[in-house]
């Protein structure tokens, strides 16, 4: 979702909330990356608002641990250390496994077809950035198919931390081809209504993603 789409969808909300949602989406989409500096005047100009709601939104980003005070003026998008990354993926493994298990129970045929379409888009994507976009939609669709509002809410909260991970793991050699296979197997488990298998495959998929993430962090 683009920042402009967020602004359209938040029409009527207080400006501080609108700016916060726009900045959060910019983090999640990779428009702002770990280490990037955020300045009030630049954000206000970009979103065509005064600096007051930007200052309010910045305060919320700080309280959520998404940005930290940089040297001089402005804030810096925070980087996660290795311990935080491992903890984040441990939670992702639990949530993704549970979502896949419930999706195997509740997903409709059109939802399974939509997962296949997203996977096709993922496999045909020409850049790692586009793969990451399709991958995000793919996983969000599994959570939606789980029919559990609390699980879906937990994923949305986790996405804020996921935004701090940095470069997509699809820049790691052989990771895209492995993810293709993992996604296809997961879809078929969901289609077959095999909750145990879907849970196990989703967890294994996240563990492989963690391996690729650590490889990036270690410069491999």
Q: Could you explain the architecture of this structure?
A:
This protein is mostly helical and 220 residues long. It has 2 domains: 75 residues, Winged helix-like DNA-binding domain superfamily/Winged helix DNA-binding domain (Arc Repressor Mutant, subunit A, Orthogonal Bundle); 136 residues, GntR ligand-binding domain-like (Four Helix Bundle (Hemerythrin (Met), subunit A)), CATH 1.20.120.530. Helices cover 71% and strands 4% of the residues. It contains 10 helices and 3 strands; from the N terminus they run ααβααββαααααα. α5 runs antiparallel to α8 and α6 runs antiparallel to α9. The mean pLDDT is 92.
Care to give the gist of this entry?
By secondary structure, this protein is mostly helical.
Radius of gyration: 18 Å
The CATH H-level homologous superfamily of the largest domain: GntR ligand-binding domain-like
Spans of 5+ residues with little confidence (pLDDT < 50)? none
Largest sheet: 3 strands, antiparallel
């Amino acid at each position: 979702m683009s920042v402009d789409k967020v602004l359209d969808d938040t029409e009527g909300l207080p400006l501080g909330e609108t700016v916060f949602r726009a900045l959060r989406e910019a983090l999640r989409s990779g428009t702002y990356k770990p280490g990037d500096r955020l300045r009030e005047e630049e954000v206000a100009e970009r979103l065509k608002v005064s600096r007051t709601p930007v200052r309010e939104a910045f305060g919320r980003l700080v309280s959520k641990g998404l940005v930290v005070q940089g040297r001089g003026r402005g804030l810096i998008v925070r980087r996660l250390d290795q311990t935080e990354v491992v903890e984040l993926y441990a939670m992702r493994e639990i949530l993704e496994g549970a979502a896949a298990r419930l999706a195997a129970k509740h997903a409709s045929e059109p939802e399974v077809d939509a997962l296949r379409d997203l996977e096709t888009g993922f496999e045909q994507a020409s850049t790692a950035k586009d793969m990451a976009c399709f991958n995000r939609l793919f996983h969000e669709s599994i959570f939606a198919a789980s029919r559990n509002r609390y699980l879906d809410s937990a994923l949305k909260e986790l996405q804020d931390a996921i935004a701090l991970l940095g470069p997509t793991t699809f820049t790691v050699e052989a990771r895209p081809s492995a993810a293709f296979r993992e996604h296809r197997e997961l879809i078929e488990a969901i289609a077959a209504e095999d909750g145990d298998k879907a849970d196990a495959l989703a967890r294994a998929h996240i563990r492989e993603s963690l391996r690729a993430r650590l490889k990036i962090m270690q410069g491999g």
